[in-house]
């Protein structure tokens, strides 16, 4: 087969068919690259440049979950905390900043388990452990031997608590009283009473009419068996208001 005659390139030199095909491929590749570059330049020209002095928007950083450690600086009335391994409720607190020395927090705590109150002082910023105490609203029904029976008025489920688990709460319980049954670490530890209750005086010395001497008091026994000091003018059958947090007489309700 005769060879194809050589042709001349655009530069005027002779080239074979193979060389001509290679030159055509290179020309086409260069044209495509030129077209792509031109398109990119046009696209960039359409996007306005940011004004001088204007910061470009940045992608927002992922927010980190922050946990706040509980300390004595966070103490407030009603808070449940663990002290010496026991769940306690803050009854009173006072932040103190002396002129010299470190600041501290003076508190009055009520032990949920025993019902007793005590004073406790924390250093300012001292770490605390929250007491995970659950509450269930129930109503005191009746005593049964050495136990006290409470009822959930929605489900009618009964909770029976021994006397020793109620502490001083037994001094104020009367049938039909609404209380909160407390559970801590999966165990029923007692009940939380209203801050004040109204109870009748069962026994006391006869009152002297008109005797309202300031500070003069006498012994009295309430219908629950609770003994306390009351003013001289009170008589048996009088209904008085008592603070369940410290067991003190507050005022006479009726006679």
Structure, explained:
The structure is a single chain. By secondary structure, this protein is mostly beta strands. Among the domains are: 72-130, SH3 type barrels (Roll), CATH 2.30.30; 133-192, Nucleic acid-binding proteins (OB fold (Dihydrolipoamide Acetyltransferase, E2P), Beta Barrel), CATH 2.40.50; 196-254, Nucleic acid-binding proteins (OB fold (Dihydrolipoamide Acetyltransferase, E2P)). Helix content is 13%, strand content 40%. The protein has two helices and 17 strands. It has helices at 17-46, 163-166, and strands at residues 7-8, 14-15, 80-83, 86-96, 104-111, 117-123, 129-130, 133-144, 147-151, 158-162, 178-184, 187-192, 196-204, 217-222, 227-231, 239-243, 249-254. The strands form four sheets. It has a five-stranded antiparallel sheet with strand order 6-5-4-3-7, with no helix packed on it. A five-stranded antiparallel sheet has the order 10-9-8-11-12. The radius of gyration is 43 Å and the shape is elongated. Mean pLDDT is 81; it is low at 60-67. Pathway: Protein biosynthesis; polypeptide chain elongation. InterPro entries: Elong-fact-P_C, NA-bd_OB-fold, Rib_uL2_dom2, Transl_elong_fac_P/YeiP, Transl_elong_KOW-like, Transl_elong_P/YeiP_cen, Transl_elong_P/YeiP_CS, Transl_elongation_fac_P. Keywords: Cytoplasm, Elongation factor, Protein biosynthesis. Belongs to the elongation factor P family. It is found in: Cytoplasm.
